[in-house]
Description:
Chain A is mostly helical. Chain A has one helix spanning 16-37. Chain B has three domains: 9-58 and 76-193, no CATH class; 204-403 and 524-556, no CATH class; 420-496, no CATH class. Chain B is built from 26 helices and two strands. The radius of gyration of chain B is 28 Å and the shape is globular. The A-B interface holds A 1-2, 4-13, 16-17, 19-24, 26-28, 30-32, 34-35, 38-39 and B 1, 3, 111-112, 115-116, 120, 190-191, 193-194, 196-198, 200-201, 204-205, 208, 264, 267, 384-385, 387-389, 392, 396, 399-400, 404-405, 498-499, 502-503, 506, 521.
Amino acid sequence: MAQFERGTSLSIFVSDRREDFSALIFAFAIAFSVMLIVG
Amino acid sequence: MVYTMKSPALLIIGILMLIWGGLNNSGAVDGMQSYLQKSAYSDYMKVKEKFDAESRVATEMAAAEGKPAPEMKMPKSKFDEAKAKQAQLSFIFGGAFVLIGLFSLAWKPKQGNLDYYVSVVPGIAFVLLIAFIVRWGLDPVFANWGKAVKDAGILTWDFAHIFNLNYVVLGIVIGMIVVNVFKIPAWAANGVRTARFFLKTGVILLGTLYSAAELAQLGMLSVVMIGIFVLGSVGLVLFMGKRMGSNNSMTAVLSAGMGVCGVSATVAASPVVQAKAEEIAYTIGTILIWGVGCMFLFPTVGHMLGMGPVQFGAWAGTGILNSAQVAGAALAFDPHGIETLKVAEIFNITRVLFLPIIVLWLAAWYVKHEEGAKKVNLGQVLVAKFPVFVLGFIAMFALSSAGVFAPAGHYQGKYFSSAEVKEDKLLKDKETRALEGELSKMRTPEETKALQDLIAYKKLSTREQSQTLRSVAKIKDLDPLAKGAIEKASKAATHDSKNIRAYRDWIAWLFAFGLIGLGMQITGKALKQAGGAPLIIGGVVGTLKAVGSLIVVLLFVKEFV
């Protein structure tokens, strides 16, 4: 049952590294979306 | 374990957002918005006045010619744009939250990824709702109140401006009140923990806003200042720790936290100096106390001393210990522009780039002072703990300055483009004749060529020529008409980047969200974790760093960006 207990008290991610990479992907997704939508 | 809770909260938040979007679209809250969005509303009144006059003339002309009155549409004002933006955001998020809210009520969650990610949404909606209320409601209310009190002569200064009662500070304070007085609702707990993720996304996205020229200037300044203060504070903590008889591991981990970038430096240094969990907790508690104090104090001092964005950004980026609080202070100081945040984050990122040096120093120091210290693979520690989002920021900047995400060579959101100069912005014959008369005053062949090209094409052709002619415009005995023509041509070829405006907007929302969530993590319990020697050492070094960097900034940093 404990296998899905995850995240830390400060983050929903299991590690800082995972959080960093997710932020990286999200930031690039925003940048590409702005580029495509705004011009 | 199943995380998703059966609660109508998400659905209710979604409906509230949809209602707000509908009210804005229908114009039902125009009266309230005209108070909240005062400057945008005054723009609306100007546009309306101009439109009414034009339409009256057009109607009279049509009547004189015996034709029916022409149909005219009033152009959009800043007020219309602001309302449309609120409606758009409310509809997008409200719609999504209603759909997910209905789904989570009807769905029987099973343990797994879907359950975990669905459980995060209500908390995100909760923080976003507070962000909407604070940005669109409380922020303008306090701004208007501060001005009204000053205009009425009750106070000689604007209290909302001096005490930074803007959406950043109000958001953090509301977050702190929610967690310490009311407690975060159980259904929102998971989503609140996304705050740091959104702050990191904001920092990476900030990379799109810098131009190479800005970064070169700020980079040099930040390396020098950060070099002095990071290395100085690490050395001072190590010295004081030894004198006060603190544990070597405690002293070392505190020095990393006080010197480099707060929590992540503490975590990165801890395996190298074999720090215990409670030592890490003490350090983080000490940093938190200092960071929170500085976040509220720095912007007020900055306003009182009349500091500019570069000076304040340099001071906050050097003197405040933790990345999130650096961003909080910079945005609190200058909430409606991103310039201060940009400067502060460059200092913050330079500080993180010092992390490998500090880890190596602490490893050497620890092995020297601790008997029987285990050797740790430093390379492995650095690869495992170095914050990747800093590299993301650098990658984003590199791509952006190459013209991928923003116009190449942009400077503070503006870029040069000769091809985009509109027909009606070309120089008039009268202006080119005035320029011809000034050709003899040119001091170099480059100036002569630039002026000849401007006369021939009636617009500026290249960025270099634009820069050359900007110095020509400063020649003392230049004909005022020629000077005006150069300024007009320069303005016509300088354009606002819509992309950069969109990035600024995204960044402001990401930070607003992240900082409200950050406020919800500042609990009394976390603050109490600091105590004894770490707090004394932290207090002395933190104060010296804050005061020392303030003096250096005031003496040496000029508003050159």
